[in-house]
Amino acid sequence: MKVRHRHDAIVRSLRRNGMTTIDDLADEVGASRRTVLRDISALRDEGFVIHSDVGRGGGLQLDPQSMQTTARLSVPEVFALLISVAAMRAAGNLPFSDLADAGLAKIEKGLPSDKVKDLRAFLDCLHIGQLSPLQDLSDMGPMDPALLPVFETAFLQRTCVRFDYRDAKGRRSKREVEPQAMLILPPLWYLVAWDPTRDDFRHFRMDRISRPETIEGQTFRRRHVPFEDDVCPYRELSRKHH
Amino acid sequence: MKVRHRHDAIVRSLRRNGMTTIDDLADEVGASRRTVLRDISALRDEGFVIHSDVGRGGGLQLDPQSMQTTARLSVPEVFALLISVAAMRAAGNLPFSDLADAGLAKIEKGLPSDKVKDLRAFLDCLHIGQLSPLQDLSDMGPMDPALLPVFETAFLQRTCVRFDYRDAKGRRSKREVEPQAMLILPPLWYLVAWDPTRDDFRHFRMDRISRPETIEGQTFRRRHVPFEDDVCPYRELSRKHH
DNA sequence: GAAAACGGTGCCAAATTTTGGCACCTTTGA
DNA sequence: TCAAAGGTGCCAAAATTTGGCACCGTTTTC
């Protein structure tokens, strides 16, 4: 029997019986007394609160208050948490990131609404870079509020997107691209997209995009976006865009 | 690395990259090609839908709609999430902080009250400064992975900690201190601790700490750490440490 | 048509983790 | 005082996981 399953069995038994002894548990799950003790210890590490009464007539009791993670989070809340943790990881060298990730994975799983999946698909394409100390933030403009819904659709359903773009020198152009990823270099947001007419990746500062719209019925394949680890190979490009 | 964690890492990577090859995955999670293949197989058994394109130019793709299982959030995971959100709020340039806070508040309600008190107490000890543009990051070393569990225990249970420290001039010393706060000046982390033998606060760069261990049974009282608002009065000190 | 870049399988020895047994400790109720 | 309870440290045996290796079948590229 797998460890995981045995742990589950122990928790179930504790829930059911209220009070149990280690030997009974060992008997029930078919493991040795020593192993059950180890399991109990592991469960405590995981956060289960298990009271133990030592001495004759004693036993184990699972605190029913422990491990209640029945939090019903709203979709925007989960979304916000996801971004927090992604940003945290991107900052680098932060302890506990793995734990936070693991926790979020569980939260997600507890919220099986379609809307969450939509947002998640959107977030899957999110790359968050290091804060650039030399960044010039002065010309960061507001983002078009229509962007988010359009790109949500784009990332979830892989539909192409059309928009107007104004580059660093103020030149305007019309684009039709395949959105492949989002790149966040706080506080700037970029869209990384494959441009079929140029047959190459291009990236667009989100606050320079206007009049975005979904191109109905025109879908695309995902490509390998050339990111290396968490380091942003577009650093030079983004600087150029400033 | 535990199997379960590797599986999570793989799912995360698949989500992030959209399209990946097995060799890339193996590289990323630090396992062999064969092991990753086995993991993929296991994930498929668990219900994840992973499409594979064989042949040159092919790769793996995770169906974002694919199944998710039940949730069980552990206290350390909530702990990690709290830190993430606190860090993000301090960074100041990402939206959605309020939402993330609201979400976490809901999660907290599900935990036993004493745990929440501990978590809050820890958060109170977390000070996150602004990124200094002039920061010299060149000598930031890797943190000892043993630090995390030791300091988690220290902050949650108020146990003293023993470790070796190497200061800016390379001098080594042994320390036994009471961890009072964590100071984050991205990307540097400092431990702010009361040193009983010196009868004063000392701070330690996390990446210069080695061989950390919990001093079993020796606990301490919290003290008032002399921070003012979110500004770090140790700025000079930390610079001295660079 | 050959080579290269993909995913995938079977097998086995080595590495790693888990397990069970044992001795022994402390606490508690009868 | 004794028996029944939880708990720890240690170690060798058992089980599982891992990493090579050889080899297959596709598909794209040259």
Automatic annotation (TrEMBL), chains A, B:
**Keyword terms:** Transcription, Transcription regulation
InterPro entries under this entry?
ArsR-like_HTH, CBASS_pafABC_assoc_protein, DeoR_HTH, HTH_11, WH-like_DNA-bd_sf, WH_DNA-bd_sf, WYL_dom
Where is each HTH deoR-type domain found?
3-58
- Statement: the UniProt record of this protein carries the keyword Transmembrane helix: no
GO MF annotation list: DNA-binding transcription factor activity
Which domain of life, per UniProt?
Answer: Bacteria
| Name listed for the protein in its UniProt record | HTH domain-containing protein
